Amino acid sequence: MAYQVSVFLENKIGHMERITAVLKAAGINILTMNLNHTTGGWGIVNLLVDQPELAYGQLSDAGISAALRRIVVLPMEDKPGSLDGLLRKIAGAGINFTTAYGRSGRGTAWFVVDTEDIPDAETILKSAGLEILPDETVYTLD
Amino acid sequence: MYWEKELETLPEKELRQLQVNRLNITLAHARRSPFYGELFGRNGNHPESVNDVKGIESLPFTVKQQLRDHFPYGFLTLPQKEIIRLHSSSGTTGNPTVIFHNRHDIDSWANLMARSLFCAGVRDTDVFQNIVGYGLFTGGLGFQYGIEKLGALSIPAGAGNSLRQIKLMRDYGTTAIHAIPSYLTRLYDVFREEHLNPQKDTRLRLLCIGAEPHTEEQRQRIQEMFGVKAYNSFGLSEMNGPGVAFECEYQNGLHIWEDAFLVEIVNPDTLQPVPDGEFGELVMTTLDRQANPLIRYRTRDITRIIPGACPCGRTHRRIDRITGRTDDMFILKGCNIFPMQIEGVLMKIPEVGTDYRITLETVSDQDTMVIDVEIKKDCFRGDLAFLDKLQKRLTHLIRDEVLVTPVIRLVEPGSLPKAEGKAVRVYDTRKR
Ligand SMILES: [Zn+2]
User: Fold this and answer.
1) N or C: fewer beta carbons within 10 Å in chain B?
2) How far, in Å, CA of B84 to CA of B68, rounded?
């Protein structure tokens, strides 16, 4: 099971830096991230990091509201049309997700999907013919 | 079971007669002060004495502004030589309000305070840590003298420095604490930061909370945190300070010591008495104070008399927890709103942390109420839907309570500025 760290973020100057300062001090590397915010003045930043448990612990100790959320990382070829193909397969599996983001590397790209609220997401995606990145490689995307 | 059995269980009729006798003595004392001397002398239709407690309604009210206007000695009945202490408000704007005590007054207050503590279950075997400011603030010395009178071991710790408070508690096996409620929630956070649990790592057996309006929900939270009962204390500096009213073991309202204070509840607009059970402004007359008696003093605190007898057997009536002050109330879009109503809603929601802040703003010519609400770190699950639902739920609950739709802003725990002393909850930035 792979995890991202989701962090509550007030929409205020300097607030994001509070988070990155904690990660920097703990020597944690951010592999990719995305940021959602609402009209209510707050948002959530989702972080895929190399050491999610450590990041979660350090952020919590610093008094920051953080949570570990289950994810799957789907690899694809880094070329036009790859994401379209991937999304068709996900739709075919009947899975609907609210948080997803990506990253591309040398010839390969990755699609990160938050599956915390979807039980059996991995099994369903696998049976729809999707390749899921094994946990040990999730935290070393390169 | 009682500190003064006979006085505390005096039958209703005898208690009223005692009040009449003491009121007449008080009126005689009061006439010796410049203020009341002139007030009662100038206006010949004020009676010299009354025959029953209802007779007090023929006398004029006293308000805080008069205390300020006649600062410092206008209400003093005795030569300064007789006075042994004063307590005064901070008075950041205008004259402070000051109350003087002679030896009798200090003894009487200490006894009321000892009676209050005994009523809440404090005994001479307790180790009592008083975690409020000493000095001019009445909560420090008021409790101090009461604890000593009762015979418990007092630790005059004063306010602040949570690590030192915890060390004192552990070094001396503190069994009872007095503090303001917002401080206790902060103290609990420090216990947790130190990886200590007050339920296991202290010998606490009861708490006294007061000097700051709070809700039943906040009390419940404090009781859960510390695993012991928290008894409500009520007082105000014009009526000595603490020791005016206190909860007994039943925690069903605060017995107000009627041998020392004559209590009226009036409608703050019409100033007419309201029936028992109905909320109004608390009006008090001192019955056992010589140096600085006050007649029909408008406290501006909103409460009610709780009808019926208390199972503890004390005949002194009970007042409800203070739901607000007439001057805390604000008016928004024509609705009268007390901050306590909003706190009551927030503290019922488990995901809400201990602090909140109400800001009244003018946004494009519309007055709005913005409430910053701390979310509890442990409740955070990392998804937007959860926060969205919480925000909508709070908006609806508060609208149902105060009839105005608030703007709810969720904020990080610990991000609201911490107030020293009494927590300031309302910031009014509206354009007038
Ligand atoms: Zn009782």
Assistant:
1) C
2) 21
How wide is the angle at C-alpha A23 spanned by C-alphas A21 and A29, nearest 5°?
130
Closest CA relative to residue A60, chosen from A102, A26, A94, A89: A26
Question: Which of B391, B409, B414 is opposite residue A63, by nearest beta carbon?
Answer: B414
Burial class (CB in 10 A: 0-12, 13-18, 19+), B284: buried
Regarding whether A46 and A89 lie in a shared domain, the answer is no
Task: Confirm or reject contact between B230 and chain A (CB < 8 A).
Answer: no
User: Would you state the structure tokens that stand for residue B415, as one six-digit string?
Assistant: 């991000």
In the DSSP assignment, the letter for residue B414 is: T
CATH topology of domain B1-326: Rossmann fold (3.40.50)
Tokens of A65: 């509201």
Residue B280 is inside which H or E element, if any?
Answer: strand B280-286
- Chain A residues 73-132 within an 8 A CB cutoff of chain B: 98-99, 114, 116-117
Question: What ranges do the domains of chain B cover?
Answer: 1-326, 330-428
Distance CA B329, CA B358 (A): 12
Could you say which architecture CATH assigns to the domain B330-428? 2-Layer Sandwich (3.30)
> Could you tell me which residues come within 8 angstroms of residue B24 by beta carbon, excluding any fewer than 6 positions away?
B49, B50
| The one-letter amino acid at B26 | T
A84: domain CATH number is 3.30.2130.10
Higher local confidence (pLDDT), B301 or A106: B301
Of A50, A69, A88, the position where a domain reaches its end is A69
B312 CA distance to ligand 1 middle (Å): 4
Model confidence at A63: pLDDT above 70: yes
Of the candidates B51, B50, B27, the residue with the CA atom closest to the CA atom of residue B39 = B27
Q: What is the ipTM of this complex?
A: 0.74
Any CB–CB contact under 8 A between A6 and chain B? yes
B316 exposed, middle or buried (CB, 10 Å; 0-12, 13-18, 19+)? buried
Q: Is the preceding omega at residue B339 within 30 degrees of 0, hence cis?
A: no
Does A60 contact B at CB distance below 8 Å? Answer: yes
How many domains does one find in chain A?
A: 2
Residues of chain B with Cβ-Cβ distance to A67 below 8 Å are: 380-382
Instruction: Write the pLDDT tens digit of every residue in B323-355.
Output: 777 777 788 887 778 888 888 899 889 889 878
User: Domain span at residue A122?
Assistant: 71-138
B153, B169 Cβ separation under 8 angstroms: no
Q: Answer whether A64 touches B (CB < 8 Å).
A: yes
Token readout for B260 is 């020392």
Is B383–A63 a contact, with Cβ atoms under 8 angstroms apart? no
| Sign of the torsion formed by the C-alpha atoms of B100, B102, B106 and B111 | negative
